[in-house]
């Protein structure tokens, strides 16, 4: 494994976790919150999984690759929903999730 | 400090964290989700703080007492909101939070 | 899925997470800490993964089953190491991990 | 509150959490691990508290300021110990903790 790539992936996961946390909080304040239920759920799950993934990568846990695989799926799932909403926070979150999914897949390979 | 009391408080915090997680998830599915925004926010904060509190107590961290104080406040704040909603999950959550606040205040004393 | 079984598994994961946290802290205080390095690492990983698993089960996340599978592996891995140490906290931790692995495998099935 | 400052503090907390996680893992592999017990404990506590702090700031939780205060103390406490060890990871961790304590104090003010 390439140390530089690992370090990039840690940053991407951490940043994605925080973007998802912010998106969930912002969705909860949207006028049509009843349209945002699924988005909030997926963002909260993704925030937790990305946070754990960053930590496991950071200490090069033997479970790192499996968590990266799972994290990539959680990111895809979150991006799928976020990308359907026009709010700027949702569009940014979808983008962060796609980037994170890609980095995690490279790491899991 | 009394070891039995510490162990009870760890259980109470952990259980409260999970009750708050379940309440937030259930609130998000309620018909009038626009009435539940504040409740979801407070439950999510409380879930995270209780979770950290249980862990810090479990390892008898030097920050245990300060986190117990903070946890008691987060529990009060969550109970204040949850108790105003008639959903069973909110009433149960308010009760769990009140018990947890009480245990944490004893621990912080 | 059986609701009672789910609720049992949440409790088992949460309890295992805290047992691992306590075992890591106790290992760090052992006289021959240089013998406990691997045990501490595995306990810390297992504590984090079990904690996330309990939360994901509690909200019936779509990632619940995959995290249960991963959690079962982390528990096996931790039990394998803990069971080789005679400290009471290690023996208890090995037992908690074996029980948790079993519950998580049922949940993932 | 200044939005730019908040965003800087989130990044600093997140980065400090990961630096502490890496330092604990590296300390555990040091030849004289018996000298690193206290350092590992403080790094693990600091990693968890910084992680929660970043998340609470990110969603502008009403508990943000109190957690920033607590986080500043955890960072000071960790820096105090890390700065006494010559390992590069300890020196870097002490520096990250000092920076984080300073940012968190500004945020809590």
TrEMBL record, chains A, B, C, D:
Gene3D superfamilies the UniProt entry points to: 1.20.1270.360
InterPro entries: Csp_YhjQ, YHJQ-like
Any Pfam family matching the protein: Csp
Domain of life: Bacteria
PANTHER family (UniProt xref): CYTOPLASMIC PROTEIN, CYTOPLASMIC PROTEIN-RELATED
Record's protein name: Four-helix bundle copper-binding protein
Organism of derivation: Acinetobacter pseudolwoffii
